[in-house]
Batch of 4 targets.
Target 1
Amino acid sequence: MELTQGLLLTADTVSPYVTTGAYITLLAGLLGFLLKYLFKKFDDALTKNAESIEIIQTKNQECNKELENKIIELINRNEEKTQDHIAKMENEINGIKKEYGNIKGDFATVFLQRDDFFRFTNGMENSLKDQNGKIDRLLFMMSEQKKN
């Protein structure tokens, strides 16, 4: 019996091992549960973040489309205004060209009239000189007749 007595497991010899094993098992189960819970929370948070990112991307795309449409609208408005201004400027330029052509034509006419005026006044001056000379001769002749 002695041989079996050393191999027999009694409550005194098994109890610390069983208790330690039970604690280890309990701690392992609790740690497994906590890890499972934390991974679940982490997974839920990632899912929420992914959904939030998708919502933000959708809103961003909508805003980008709205901005693109507004930019296109502004470009079209500016293009129309630019075309209107270009047309007005072309009309003004054409009017200025016509006025310039008229002035250019009038300039030649005015210049010729001015030149003719100077020629006429020079001719009048010569005529007046001739007439003065004749009047002087007549006055001279009259004064000599009175003397004689």
Note: The longest helix spans residues 11-147.
Target 2
Amino acid sequence: MEYADFALSFLMWLMVPVAVIYTIYRVIRRGYEVNLLAERGVDGKAWLKHKQLFRRRSTSTRRLIYVFKGPDGKNYKRHSLVDEDEFNAVQENSEIDIVYLPDSPKVNAPKPMVELVRETKKKQGRDMVPPA
């Protein structure tokens, strides 16, 4: 039984760094995607299905869940974390503005998020790649 306890303990400790590495990967990947959206994304409309508000102690997390039909005819569903102003500015079961990559519509985000990146790039004097 000692071997089983050791194996279980080892697996538990292994899960922590794997979870941390995966989280870092997801954050970097999403940043890359939003950067691509700022450079080459096209405007579109999505249907806001649900707004979620999670409250934990002194912080709140706001999430929008939306669906849109891409240029390839497929439906794409996404959830996106937003700030309080954007969360309060939209209503469930209504259209919202999004930006998506025409060659990969699964990469998309609410337009205010992409506009924030575009504004930041302009302030930094970084050239934008024209839309393809």
Note: Strands lie at 42-56, 59-69, 75-82, 94-101, 104-110.
Target 3
Amino acid sequence: MGFAVFIIIIVLAMIAVVVFNSKRQKNTETVTATYAKAHGWTVNTAVPSVPALEKLGYTKRNALIEGTLDGFQFWIYEYVLNGGRNKVYVPNMTIALPVTSPELLVMRNNNLGTLSNAFAAGGYGLQLIQLEGDFNQHLLAYCEAGNQVATLEYLTPNVMAVLEDNFPNGVLFSGQYIAFDIPRLQTSQQLDQVLQSAHLLLSALKERLSVQLNSNSIRSY
């Protein structure tokens, strides 16, 4: 009898988790759809392939939101870890850049982000580099071997300060994209905060992007 009761409790607990996750996902879709409509953005569109995420084998779902922030196109969506019955959906924001950036990951020393931990663990062959000033005490930066100079040109003190203060899960630069994990969106206030953090990062990066655009003679968005 005791074992049967135990099995029933386990099954009921599993059902409760499934129901909870389903309700949470529906709420995310409702919040993001309402937010997108209010800003004239679109939903359920295809998400571009970020080279680093593709190399790790992550798959992605259609965008919860596709829009434009400060002239840069962005997508808020979920990528999928694992397969079969143990899939984990991780919310992410990806921003398109008008130039190709170095392959770069920056995260806090105490980072717990899913995406950044995968790269720091050696999944993409990035190497730890030294940062200027005392930022080494707070941030870890990884780049491709031999690309330290180009990487440090992106990591100005202003950019590193924004990363330290606003991106607890780290930020990945890959190809012409910036990608970072975000909280599971349950309120419009969370979306406000995500977009404000992205705005601060883009503002800090604009000087570097402008220099690269001028040197490459590439037209900005």
Note: The helical segments are 2-39, 51-55, 114-123, 148-154, 157-166, 188-216.
Target 4
Amino acid sequence: MVPGFDGTNVSARFRSSETIKQLGFIFIKSQARPTMRRQLLCSITLLWSHTAWCDSGQPPAVPLQFREHVEAKQNRASDRPETNPSPQKALLVQGTKAPGMEIWLDVGYATTNEACRSQTLFARILGAPDVIQVVYDSVRVPEEDTKFAFKLSLDRYLPGECGWKPFVLRFAKFEPGVTSGPLFTTPIAVIRDNGKENAEYTWVCHREQKYHDLEKTPWLACRSPRRISNEDMTISSNGAVVEIHLAIDTESSEP
């Protein structure tokens, strides 16, 4: 998710069931012990069941559920970050949004020490490389609020041996009563030592039906009216003020 560390649908990584078939052939021909081979084939079967929609082109639309704290599946308990007893660096996020829209804002923290890279057992069996460990802390802005302001801590966790640091600010949006949650989170800005101390972002959203949604649910799709440069999408890890504005363009929305 940047995005994708917190449980990105496995099926999105394998766009064709042919890929799974090839993996299965490789594992069957491997010199693994019978017990290990059975485990690998079981894993492939499970993965195939998750990607069955690839042949039909109908992936499921499953809304996310709000959680204040999320730890990625590849994280190790021994590397869990320690909460900073006296945080000093703050990210002030404030702005406006359309009534009837709920948004979630989160800050992602990641390990920077190469020795702390990790992976799930399932992904490791399939040969996936180790990746950074990440956690996300979130706040929500309910649908009835049209203005909001939050202070999010950028040094919420001590660096520790794994070098935990903030790396991304994200948001998710949806309309309660229309859908039960958003489909995905969207990066707002990358957090870096040399990032900007002030930033402003505006999105205009419209309702559209996803090609794979058999129930024809009108999901919110948001776009910026101006081009956003890489520099604009980088904010300071030492503290910053971020202005966010979200509007709904009902005239251009699909019926």
Note: The longest strand covers residues 198-209.
